[in-house]
Amino acid sequence: MTTTFRIDAGEIRRQFPFFQPHPEMRSVVYLDNAATTQKPYAVIEAVSNFWAHHNANVHRGGHGAGARASEMYEAARTRVAQFLNAREPAEIVFTRGTTEAINLVASSWGEAFIRAGDEIIVTEMEHHANLLPWMRLAEKQGAQLKVWRITDDGRLNLDELDRLLTERTRLVAVSHISNVLGTVNPVGEICRRAHAAGALCLVDAAQSVAHMPVDVQAIDCDFLAFSGHKAYGPTGIGVLYARRALLEATPPYHVGGGMVQTVRWERLVWAEPPAKFEAGTPPIGEAIGLHAALDFIDSIGREAIEQYEHELTQYALSRLQEVPDLRLYGPAPDRASIFAFTLGDIHPHDIATVLDTRDVAIRSGLHCAHPLGERLGGSTARASLAIYNDAQHIDALIDALHETRRVFGKTRA
Amino acid sequence: MMPLNELYQEIILDHYRQPRGRGELEPPKITQEGFNPSCGDEIILDLRVRDGRIEAVRFHGRGCSISQASASMLTEAVQGKTLAEAHALIQQVLGLVKGETDGDIDSLGDLAALAGVRQFPVRVKCATLAWHTLEEALKQVS
Ligand SMILES: Cc1ncc(COP(=O)(O)O)c(C=O)c1O
């Protein structure tokens, strides 16, 4: 392959224990990055350093270790704010992940501001995390859920959005990158049109933050959510970004310790955001791990990552075309490095099993997007790339797909 | 390398390519749907039970080779069985697939091939789907 990758994936793999030889583990070609990414040493060490040497609860002062832990936790928040180009750290709420962030918005903002007869627009390609909270909210409030259908090649048509938007629309909920189709949605333009109609816009950035620059002010979204674990960070930590004024107007989510200013029998005063939305002891070590993960991403550079993954995507697209009976879903060539496909009548679960025996790790199924799966005609196999993958990994995938056809008695074309 | 040929034994692939008992029954019948939400496999079993015996059984739905072959084998294996025999067979197959018991493999015929999934923990629920669906269906018989 003749490309001009500025990134040496082998060098990057050396920063990950997962890719080092291990006496009891086979080395695998890991192509399930849309589910979760591997963790670099820097993240694992940041987390273990915190547990080993700095462990204390945050914002509960009284001793130096507590103050240090609070500082580290707040430094992580500041780092996230900078990473997303938020206006201030107070716009960053730590959650357990994308799912919890969106549930927070649906429960707290949604139940306060969505009324009977209001409309919420979701796209047909949403992950359940950005679908079920809105379905439940609509049912609870008597609001109407409107579905923005995708085109046959897996895109969103903006004219269709204009048709769906009315003066009753309160929110458009859309993923930045589809976790199945790899479609990169024009979220800036979607937010602009939503705002012009008087609606807010929530962006599910679970699949984008580790793969391309994401700037909340440039997108001009009202809410944005992502998960640490899909961005080289720990599980159990995620982010909700929201404009300050929205966080101030929104009632708390969970209530309990750490999120309240005054508690009298006759009166409660909530803390200011973001503390208002962080009841209980937060995932401190995980937030610190996320800080290290964002440092890792920016040490490579998000433009460089985007360019490298784009070139690798073009290579993958051309090689996938060589496999007889392979049907790729989603747009091409302008798309992210997530490839859902079927292989003739060989069931995706069987594809994944054969690949697994060849030490190529992919995923099969409906990918937590059942309505989209229905539209596509059922389960698909999915390979998804990250910064440590390279052309040899794509080659291993292609070889294993040919092998799958042999196992199922399809002659090699 | 994992023993792929133990999972995809010729018997399994044969049942997958030429499923036995595929289709639907005319009423009166019991219908039970089984669904595996993570992979989207779906099996719909139709049973006709008369005088404590499974008189007829059919399946349809969609899924991977293991789930479909397992359903196909099920229709052959439980046809004509009494409810008590069917319950016993369900337990025997579930134990075999999960690697809890070897059971009496020789008496299982084609079903013995399902033991191949033991080495593939993520595929166990494919093999058990039809049998759990039958378990649910039999609860409707009262
Ligand atoms: C687009 C998208 N949204 C939301 C999620 C949910 O993320 P999490 O499970 O980390 O909350 C995922 C991950 O599966 C995803 O791909």
How do the strands line up in the largest sheet of chain B?
A: 1-2-3
How far is it from the N-terminal to the C-terminal residue of chain B, by CA? 48 Å
Quick check: average pLDDT of chain A? 95
The class by helix and strand makeup of chain B works out as alpha+beta
Count helical runs of chain B: 5
Classify the secondary structure makeup of chain A into a structural class. alpha/beta
What does this structure look like?
The complex is a heterodimer of chains A (413) and B (142). With 413 residues, chain A is an alpha/beta fold. In chain A, 39% of the residues lie in helices and 16% in strands. Chain A is built from 14 helices and 15 strands. Chain A has helices at 9-13, 41-54, 64-84, 98-113, 132-141, 158-164, 187-196, 216-219, 244-249, 284-300, 302-320, 348-357, 370-376, 391-407; strands at 29-30, 92-95, 119-123, 144-148, 169-175, 200-204, 223-227, 238-242, 260-264, 267-270, 326-328, 338-343, 360-361, 363-365, 380-384. Chain A has a seven-stranded mixed sheet, with helices on both faces. In chain A, strand 6 (200-204), helix 8 and strand 7 form a beta-alpha-beta unit. The relative contact order of chain A is 0.16. Chain B has 142 residues and is an alpha+beta fold. Chain B has one domain (4-138): Sufe protein. Chain: A (Alpha-Beta Complex), CATH 3.90.1010.10. Chain B is built from five helices and three strands. Chain B has helices at 4-7, 10-17, 65-78, 83-98, 124-139; strands at residues 30-36, 41-50, 53-62. In chain B, strands 1-2-3 form a three-stranded antiparallel sheet. In chain B, a hairpin with a 4-residue loop joins strand 1 and strand 2 (41-50). In chain B, helix 2 packs across helix 3. In chain B, 42% of the residues are buried. Bound molecules: pyridoxal-5'-phosphate. Pyridoxal-5'-phosphate binds next to helix 4 of chain A.
